Amino acid sequence: MLGVAMLASASDRRSKTLERRLQHLERKTDLLLAHAGIEETEDARMAEIDQLLLQGKKIQAIKVHREVTGSGLAEAKEAVERRMR
């Protein structure tokens, strides 16, 4: 049992480390794009997500977001909720 807990703890630490590194790289990429004057184009289906939200269809909006971005359920839910604000 102790071995499983240690393995889970090590896996969680690696996951958090990778997440921090990914966020750091994303910030750097954003800075480089801004410095170069390049704007990231938004997928046309994001307008579909906004339309679904206007219709009160949050679950369908989350499904479309996952299709468009390949994100997981929790990440898509957070992103869709940010679009609602």
TrEMBL record:
GO terms for molecular function: structural constituent of ribosome. SUPFAM superfamilies: ClpS-like (SSF54736). InterPro entries: Ribosomal_bL12_C (IPR013823), Ribosomal_bL12_C/ClpS-like (IPR014719). GO terms for biological process: translation. It comes from the Bacteria. Residues 55-82 form the Large ribosomal subunit protein bL12 C-terminal domain. It holds the Pfam family Ribosomal_L12. This is Large ribosomal subunit protein bL12 C-terminal domain-containing protein. It comes from Streptomyces tubercidicus.
